[in-house]
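Holo prediction — protoporphyrin IX containing FE.
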Amino acid sequence: MTASSAELPPEPQAVVGPLTRAAVFLVVRVNPGGESVARDLLADLPGLQRSVGFRSLDGGLTCVAGLSSSAWDRLYGSPRPAELHDLPVFAGDKHTSVTTKADLLFHLRAERMDLCFELESLIMARLEGVVTVVDEVQGFRYFDARDVLGFVDGTENPTGRGAVDAVLVDDDGAFNGGSYVIVQKYLHDMAAWNKLTTEQQELVIGRRKLSDVELSDDEKPGDSHIALNVIEDEDGNELEIVRDNMPFGRPAYGEFGTYFIGYAKTPSIIEKMLENMFVGSPPGNTDRILDFSTPLTGALFYVPTAEFLEDPVVASDEPAEPTPEPPAPAPGTSLGIGSLRRSPR
Ligand code: HEM
């Protein structure tokens, strides 16, 4: 470990940031043999982001990359983040979640879609031929940060220090400063939803539609979205996640969706919420939002620190392999300095 990395915690990726107006959610599988190309792209991601983002200083462009459990094994091997695993299916009598075979998630955010589009184009140019696209969704911020169901979405997100505490891993050695992220793409049955009165919709969500004020404990049904997603540990502390859901859709095709994305320091918090929603708490008391929302995808990823992506050997804290003595340069030749970045394992 270098002196500077001993003093400073590893730099996280831009997991916690202000909500933006535009986002792209790109999920791909790495084809067999494509591992080193994918790893090199991940190492160069901050540079690509600067190439696009620096040209629009108020554009707020960021890109977070995550790896699934199997992708981690293929790209970086051992050691691995303690809680990285495949997202389980949550199945109750009425609702069942979906899981998707996926390797890499790219979560691009900016104030303008053109910046996301440009960076995504550069990413895909580098990955051409070595990945299979699983899903690509362009999300937009809707009126008053509402979802397409018409409710303000994101209000109770922790902010500032609380957000950092909620999302960054702090008890896993070399993996501290990373995060876990779960994504799910939902489509809504707008015809059924619009048959409800506003008051009935408010009982589904657990908040007022116009004012975004939370219903009182007396008013809020136990199967409302809010009631099932406010969870606590055994000491009564609320367990929080950071969400940056985005609406998406194609009204001409009847497509109205919410792309759910939740970051947390441990995936177990988001998984508990999913269990509450799909299996029910108690079992059978499922989230009313699922009567109008169908998941099409689902996957879990670990988000390494920016430092790890750029230099996996250093960040992994693995004992360095003994380096053979370099051959002495022939008289009159250069010092033989090639790539300044160490090649990944
Ligand atoms: C809160 C919408 C899926 C976790 C909310 C709120 C809305 C909403 C409107 C209230 C405002 C706010 O605090 O943000 C949706 C929609 C979804 C969806 C449209 C997709 C169909 C999920 C999923 C999870 C989740 C899959 C977790 C696995 C939460 C949490 C809160 C919340 C933790 C805040 C609860 C609180 O502290 O009051 N959601 N959500 N949501 N949602 Fe969702």
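READOUT: Residues 1-5, 314-345 have pLDDT under 50 and may be disordered.
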